[in-house]
Specification:
heterodimer; A: 244 residues; two-stranded antiparallel ribbon; B: 191 residues; mainly alpha
């Protein structure tokens, strides 16, 4: 094969090395694409909210649609109590979505295909949700591990399972996004490599696969951003409304 | 299938050279983890602040404005509808009143006309009666007159007849008395 399909995920330093107290915080291509994604989001929202028209233009409509989309998602899953967290979830959804989508451009870098990035986001959500739960309900929040209506014999086992499932939330949340993005991009690269190696005669089949996969990957990019945001809402719901 | 493939690739990568960036997964190379974490937190914080402080309130304002505008327009439309309905009612009332007035006028004019006709008829009838009475009087008078003239004529006829038959001239007053007597007896038969 012409090139390693994993090479696209390599992080490279751009510009000077920034070293603070022995920790390397250099600006990399990953940082660059984070900045690009954030800039595109801000530009999009700026243009989308610039003209306050009663009948919106296309960009304004898209911005308002994304607003109502996320707002509906939050109110459907976590109810009205989650209203103060709307800006965070909106930012999170937009950031993941735009990182995924910009990653679909050729020669770009997919920020969300790195486990460290998704893990930090997931850990932040996990810790924040836990803190919110304890602030709202005090030690009663621990009752989330003890589901009601379970026979007493099974209770210790169920509680252990609940605790494990709770603690594995950041892992599942981060790995889901990271693995999906990495797998998709690797596969695209592999099929792209096949096109080159099979040449003008045999390359058409993997090329058509590549085209189809690109469509699929765009869907996955949206879907994973949506899943990431909605799972955050569900975790938030658990912390805000104790149902057990 | 995709996740299976990714798992395969990942496991191959990990197995060949664990935590080595060049051949395996660059994601597991910790060289730039700190940098990525730092830049992620920085960029996301900036993004979060700008979104929550500037853009979301703006979009919310916009949406609220539109909703208010729609609500206002609907309210206005309802108000106008009510107004037009009230106007329509007013119009109906006016129309009804006008109809009533027309009926009244019609009735009034009819009654005055009837009265007029009645009074005229009455006066006419009176006049006719008067006329009839007058004529009846005249007829009566005429009758009386005719009786006396008939008596005179029959008197003269009687004296003529007697003169021609007997050649005597009778007393005028006795003839007159006889004629009067006969006529009183028979006049009722003819008059």
């Amino acid at each position: 094969m012409a090139s390693n399909p994993m090479q696209q995920f390599t992080v490279k330093r751009i510009g000077p090395e920034i070293n603070i107290v022995g920790v390397d915080l250099s600006f990399t291509n990953a940082s660059l694409f984070m900045v690009i994604s954030a800039t595109v989001i801000i530009l999009f929202l700026f243009l989308g909210s610039k003209e306050k028209k009663i009948i919106p233009n296309k960009l304004q409509l898209i911005a308002e649609m994304s607003y109502t989309f996320v707002a509906k998602m939050i109110s459907d899953t976590a109810g009205s109590k989650a209203r103060p967290y709307f800006p965070f979830i909106f930012s999170l959804f937009m950031f993941v979505l735009f990182c995924n989508m910009i990653g679909m451009l050729p020669y770009s870098f997919t920020v969300t295909s790195h486990i460290i990035v998704t893990l930090i986001m997931a850990l932040f959500i996990f810790i924040a949700v836990t803190i919110i739960g304890f602030i709202k309900h005090g030690f009663k929040y621990l009752s989330i591990f003890v589901p009601s209506g379970v026979p007493a014999v099974l209770l210790p086992l169920i509680t252990i399972i609940e605790i494990i499932s709770y603690l594995s939330r950041p892992v599942s949340l981060s790995v889901r996004l990271f693995a999906n993005m990495m797998a998709g991009h690797t596969m695209l690269k592999v099929f792209g490599g096949f096109v080159v190696s099979l040449g003008i005669l045999g390359g058409w089949l993997p090329l058509s696969f590549s085209v189809a996969l690109t469509g699929l990957e765009i869907l996955v990019a949206f879907l994973q951003a949506y899943v990431f945001a909605i799972l955050t809402c569900i975790y938030l719901n658990d912390a805000l409304n104790l149902h057990h | 299938m995709k996740s299976f493939l990714s798992l395969l690739i990942a496991s191959v990568a990990i197995n060949t050279e664990l935590f080595a960036a060049e051949a395996g997964m660059p994601q597991l190379d910790p060289t730039y983890w700190a940098s990525q974490a730092f830049w992620l937190i920085l960029v996301f914080t900036v993004l979060y602040i700008s979104i929550s402080k500037f853009y979301l309130p703006k979009i919310k304002d916009n949406l609220d404005n539109r909703e208010n505008k729609i609500k206002e327009d609907l309210e206005n439309a309802n108000k106008f509808k009510e107004e037009s309905e009230a106007k329509l009612k007013e119009y109906d009332l006016i129309l009804e009143n006008a109809k009533k007035e027309v009926l009244k006028l019609h009735f009034e004019s009819k009654s005055t006309l009837d009265k007029d006709i009645q009074s005229k008829k009455d006066s006419m009838e009176k006049e006719i009666e008067k006329e009839i009475l007058k004529t009846q009087k005249e007829i009566l008078e005429l009758k009386k007159n005719s009786i006396s003239s008939i008596q005179v004529i029959s008197g003269s006829i009687v004296s003529n007849i007697i003169e021609n038959i007997s050649g005597d001239k009778l007393n005028e007053s006795s003839i007159k008395a006889t004629v009067e007597d006969v006529s009183k007896k028979n006049m009722n038969k003819f008059l």
